[in-house]
From TrEMBL:
PANTHER family associated with the record: FI04487P (PTHR43807)
Classification of source organism: Bacteria, Thermotogati, Deinococcota, Deinococci, Deinococcales
Keyword Transferase: yes
Name of the featured protein: Pyridoxal phosphate-dependent aminotransferase
GO MF, one annotated term: transaminase activity
Signal peptide extent: none
UniProt cross-references to Pfam families, sorted A to Z: Aminotran_1_2
Keywords: Aminotransferase, Pyridoxal phosphate, Transferase
Swiss-Prot/TrEMBL cofactor(s): pyridoxal 5'-phosphate
Record SUPFAM superfamilies: PLP-dependent transferases (SSF53383)
UniProt-listed InterPro entries: Aminotransferase_I/II_large, Kynurenine-oxoglutarate_AT, PyrdxlP-dep_Trfase, PyrdxlP-dep_Trfase_major, PyrdxlP-dep_Trfase_small
Species whose genome carries this gene: Deinococcus petrolearius
Length: 381
């Protein structure tokens, strides 16, 4: 084993997509849409390739930093463009926390079920991930809730940061303003950074998610994703919005670390995203997406419920969690012989075991694929 390989193994998403392709399964695992990105994005890219083909500054094309700033209500000077939100999260891990002089690591609080990159990224940065379990209230109207008492109880003198995602992947939970205000109070009390992964900020089905930077601008780094917003996850264009007021100095330092990764995100795609962000906002693209995905969520959730499966309907993201039942084939057998790829919640477990049979299913797939998945599930459940 390579010296640092223990900290990070093959991603569950990559693995399930590989198995889905091998066995011809419907892929409700990895969260990428089956629809093409919007024409206005693709046209902007066609106009940029062949014209903007060389490096961009590590902090990003100025036009894109300004477009992101305008969209989020922050100054473009406080924005750093990254190669996807995954790199944004990694750069923040490397920038904000690491090993401590006493041989331990800075502790980073995160919510469990935990999105798969948070733990390995913290470890690779030399920090110590500490997960706090969400509560799962069963039954109708139930769902995943923030356990503020547990969060508070997990803070130690070594805690440096709080890393959370709202809307939350993998559960689809959207935390309320009241919950986030308590999170902010905790962060202020212990002087913690907040890293807020908000890649699904435009994808919600009830109350819109509250951006943590609006509650705690002085300590919040917001992570966002053009891939999620504009249905182009392979483009690898994401961003970090830093706390304001440093005159761009925080962004400059983060860009200094970010350049050691991919140096810059693909220049023509940055230009295309810069052109597309205001068009998406003004043209109601996100509202259309929400409406479409609400329909597909209802199709999948309703179909599962008709099969007797307990579903936790999400407030946001394009994932739902469902309890296929302890007797259901495990995710490995389901993809191999059941013809459906799902992500088992165990893949997001760290310190707290997930109940067997609990899976995350993506509904950013075509209605035909969702119907086919339901048909195949009905044969094995
Ligand atoms: N965010 C996506 C998901 O949760 C996948 C991320 C990835 O595969 N890099 O499925």
């Amino acid at each position: 084993l390579l010296p640092r390989a223990r900290a990070s193994q093959e991603s569950i998403f990559a693995r399930m997509s590989r198995l889905a392709a091998r066995y011809g399964a419907v892929n409700l695992g990895q969260g990428f849409p089956s629809d093409a990105p919007p024409a206005f994005l693709l046209e902007a890219a066609r106009g940029a390739v062949g014209r903007l083909d060389q490096y961009a500054p590590p902090s990003g094309l100025p036009a894109l930093r300004d477009a992101i700033g305008a969209d989020l209500g922050v100054d473009g000077a406080d924005v750093v463009v990254t190669s996807g939100a995954t790199e944004a999260l990694n750069v923040l891990a490397l920038s904000l926390y690491g090993p401590r002089e006493d041989g331990t690591g800075d502790e980073v609080l995160m919510l469990e079920p935990v999105f798969d990159v948070y733990v390995p990224q913290a470890r690779l940065a030399g920090a110590t991930p500490v997960t706090v379990a969400l509560r799962l209230d069963p039954g109708p109207g139930g769902g995943w809730r923030l356990d503020l008492g547990a969060l508070r109880g997990a803070v130690t003198p070594r805690t440096r940061a709080l890393l959370l995602n709202t809307p939350h992947n993998p559960t689809g939970a959207v935390f309320t303003r009241a919950e986030l205000e308590e999170v902010v109070a905790l962060a202020r009390e212990h002087d913690l950074w907040i890293v807020s992964d908000e890649v699904y900020d435009e994808l919600y089905f009830g109350a819109p998610p509250v951006a943590l930077r609006t509650l705690a601008p002085e300590r919040t780094f917001t992570v966002g994703s053009a891939g999620k917003r504009l249905e182009a996850t392979g483009w690898r264009v994401g961003w970090i919005a830093c706390p304001p007021g440093s005159g761009g100095r925080l962004a400059g330092q983060i860009a200094g670390i970010r350049q050691q990764g991919s140096f810059c995100a693909p220049t023509p795609l940055q230009a295309a995203v810069a052109a597309a962000l205001p068009v998406a906002r003004a043209g109601g693209f996100y509202a259309g997406l929400r409406q479409e995905y609400a329909g597909r969520m209802a199709l999948l959730a309703g179909g599962l419920e008709a099969l007797g499966v307990a579903v936790y309907r999400p407030g946001g993201t394009y994932f739902l969690t469902a309890h296929l039942g302890a007797a259901a084939p495990d995710a490995g057998r389901l993809v191999e012989s059941g013809g459906v790829a799902a992500i088992p919640l165990e893949a997001f477990a760290q310190a707290h075991a997930a109940p067997p049979g609990l899976v995350r299913l993506a509904f950013c797939k075509s209605r035909a694929d969702i119907a086919l998945a339901l048909e195949r599930l009905s044969a094995v459940l």
